[in-house]
Amino acid sequence: DFLTTTLPGRVPNIWREGAAYSCLSVETVSLVSMWVALGTGLSLGKKMGQNWVFVVTLVCLCTCGVSGLENGVARTPPMGWLSWERFRCNTDCDNDPEFCISERLFKEMADMMVVGGYLEAGYDTIIIDDCWPDHKRSADGKLQPDPKRFASGIPALSDYIHKLGLKFGIYEDYGNFTCGGYPGILGHMETDAKTFAEWEVDYVKLDGCYSEPSTMETGYPEFGRYLNETKRPMVYSCSWPAYQIGENPNYGSISEHCNLWRNFDDITDSWDSVLSIIDYYGDDKDGFAKFAAPGQWNDPDMLIIGNYGLSLDQSKAQMGMWCMFASPLIMSADLRSIRPEFKEIMLNRNLIKLNQDPMGVQARRIIKGNTIDVYSRPVMPLYNGKTSVAVAFLNRWNEGTPLEIKFTLQALGLDHPGGYQAFDVFTGKKLGSFKPADTFSGAVNPTGILLVRFNVMAKSFGQEAAKVNSSDEGIDVTYPGLSGWKTEF
């Protein structure tokens, strides 16, 4: 399996198995990720005759304990299901019991996470979004659910979800009210943190409606501290920078105090919305990409695959780009009725492995074209200081026919002298072996994506690689649909 290539010593286990998380500090991981993101690779040297020495370097750098949020969770991007985009704030359980925000909905989605294969693929968290609480707190000031829609109570729902092998997430708001007008946490931070721990919550999403954005730099860390003081590990999802767009959010502080953070507009069920988010991440005007690392992730919002607004190719494009961005994969579709072709996209193991790559480096846009944008992301495995690379070609063209692309690997910065083995990430198909000066060609469907993984090769093949020409930049794009079009009249 080309995406499960490991280094001697089973490097992925160091990153993924909970017992070892406490040994990899956020500084260590961030430092390694920064070296890879800013340079052409890691200068690793040799150890005991082996060229695979990434694990040795990490051990030398490793310090026990986790800095920043210090909760030891979300070492790879979180995966799960959230109610908001598909079910919103539908509280009319009398007339719409199948689709309203209720314990029935979340139990049924939890069931589908298991029987539908989502849990097995890595989607392990069910998250309640807004509109679950009663409009009033209890007499002792605690949050309480709507008594009719959550008649069994939140602890019972949490227990049901946990017995299925899933984790349980819940929504609140850093404000006087949630966005839907339910009680917020202001004035009750410590109480609410303790309540969530008592309910055995594993994931907390904290929105930012009805609050003053200027207070978020102290308020969000304060609530995070209360969560930590409960001693229950809870993934902390912040919306802090989403309320400071255009105001240069302090991503250094955000990444120190949150496991993930929303930083742009809410996604809606449309290709235009998806594309606007991708462009925002490609522009990266606030420099947030460099803060993505194990335990701290940029969150472009939910996957809307399987709803109403995206074609099959557009759904592949969203999934592919979210995986390139090392984004949380949080579904928001009706898993009870999702069509199999959309389900297949979200369960694609090759895509998930790309998303969960232990280096945790977010993709950068390296070419902004008229019709094709190109994104690049360094990934495992490494060899002699060179990373493997995932490259996404996003087609903005929407006029009927696929576009053909052609480029040399060195034009996109792939300069490993030993060459690369190329794979189509969606299908897993081998596309051949390439030296830096070799030409790669492919086709990209309208509003679609071509996602190729170039794995570094340990040994050179064929003839010696040609000298890299650093002036060779960009890709050639051909428009077959315009081959007969006359413009000289």
Describe the overall structure:
This protein is an alpha/beta fold. 27% of the residues lie in helices and 19% in strands. The protein has 15 helices and 17 strands. The strands form 3 sheets. It has an 8-stranded parallel sheet. A 6-stranded antiparallel sheet has the order 9-10-11-16-13-14. It has a 3-stranded antiparallel sheet with strand order 15-12-17, with no helix packed on it. The longest helix is centred in the middle third of the chain and has 14 residues, at 216-229. The radius of gyration is 23 Å and the shape is globular. Residues 1-68 and 464-472 have low confidence and may be disordered.
Task: Map the helices and strands.
Layout: H1 11-16, H2 18-21, H3 26-38, H4 54-61, E1 79-82, H5 84-87, H6 103-115, H7 118-121, E2 125-127, H8 154-163, E3 167-173, H9 189-198, E4 203-207, H10 216-229, E5 235-238, H11 251-257, E6 260-262, H12 271-283, E7 297-299, H13 312-324, E8 329-331, H14 340-346, H15 349-355, E9 364-368, E10 372-383, E11 386-395, E12 403-408, E13 420-424, E14 430-434, E15 439-444, E16 449-456, E17 476-478
Parallel strand pairs: 1-2, 1-8, 2-3, 3-4, 4-5, 5-6, 6-7
Antiparallel strand pairs: 9-10, 10-11, 11-16, 12-15, 12-17, 13-14, 13-16
